[in-house]
Amino acid sequence: MSVRSTVLAGIFAAFSTAAAFADGIELHDAYARAASPMAQSGAAFMIIHNHGGPDDRLIGAASPIAQKVELHTHEEDDAGVMRMIHVEEGFALPTDGEIVMERGGKHVMFMGLSESLEQGMTIPLTLIFEAAGEMTFDIEVDLEPRAGHGHDHDGNHDHSHSHGSGD
Ligand SMILES: [Cu+2]
Questions:
Q1: pLDDT for the residue numbered 160
Q2: Which CATH code for domain 3-141?
Q3: pTM recorded for the entire structure
């Protein structure tokens, strides 16, 4: 192979890889919430789908709305208590796989909110991937309770049925 064709092949590989990264990651059902307007912390939930991109990993997140943004999950300890854990190594995102972040499980944690999260507002969220790099999305604040759509597991339901009892 000549020097020239080697260089061209290298350039082509770099471009096609970058395009695959850009096309590969999709965000679905993303929203952010806080427990109350006074809350000092909040969280974001979403499904991240790796649509044909290379194996990747979500390793961090950032947003101007919080002093600190971390990747968290919930785990049950030996006493059966659910605890929130900072997952420093992040979440694997294999080719054609997905990261499901939903209430009671994995989430993006906002600590030290600089403004209160209000229904319908949009916040910027940057997701940092090991391979794909940084991608910034605008996600909506949704404070309404959501029933999980088929992802719920036994024992961790969040279905509060209000029947207008007054409180
Ligand atoms: Cu958390």
A1: 39
A2: 2.60.40.1890
A3: 0.73
